[in-house]
Write the structure tokens for this entry.
Amino acid sequence: MSLCQHRWEMDDVQFGFVAFERCFHCNGLRTFFSLEPTPVIGDEYREGQCYWSRAENAQSFRFGLRCSRCGERQTFDELMGLLFCTGCDAECKVDELRRQHETAGSWVLVAFGFMDREKRASVPEAKLEALADYFNQRRDPSRKQVRLVSYELIGDFSRCEGDFLHDVGMLSLQPPPPRRPTFESRAADIPDQETADDDPKPR
Amino acid sequence: MTIQSLVEKLGLKPLSTFEDREIAGVFVSDMLSDVMAGAKSGALWLTVQTHKSLVPAANLIDVAAVLITSGKAVPQDTIDLASKDQIAILSSELPTFELVGKLYALGLGNT
């Protein structure tokens, strides 16, 4: 274990896009970081029974941290983004923590890993602590402190209306439409399983 | 220079309630990712972005105030969220370029 009182600096910054893909067959959602110069919305491809379609490209960046004192590095390749809790679900653990920490003078954001259909990447606790330290070191220490928690504390994703700190619609000349909640239930969009297996065509 | 004195010098319109504090410099960008990667604590952030997600981004980096340029209309949910966190949302009819010139003349530089 390092004895260094790390002083973190952002390192190896790459601007790109967080791509959100949905499968209209299984209603799966997956995300990944893309360095494409001009990503296309609606780009579709088939993978087994699934038809994936690019639903959204959110401008974002990926980065690492480097300690200016000891040179230790942390990478955050699994970090999809930070989500701002809107207090949409009073039973959610994140909202409970948000309320507790607001009272105590700190401020909660939710760290999300990239998602792949069924599973979501975890961001290890040590990395969350390093990232929170980094943001707090950038802040005036007399003001509120930032606390980062894992998305795994979210009780029910289908009720989560949190906002990601991503740039959406920046490539369009038109004002962007309101962003749909990322995890909203799309049961109505899910094709009947038997019908879908028989005729899995894009709609 | 404090937020309040800047409001008076440039005739800015405060949209949210805020805690007055010193401005350390100026950062100009319409992208949250730019701000998260490059802005510094105490910055005055000039943007035409008005979505409420600018408030948590400003909060994360501890910017002193957000100045919405070109008279862009700011949604009420953005203003309410900023007021809750005591982040100054200011508005001006002037375009970003003119405001940057005036801020530079007042002695404010890059953060």
In short: Residues 22 and 29 of chain A are 5 Å apart (CA to CA). The mean pLDDT of chain A is 82. Residues 8-174 of chain A form one domain.
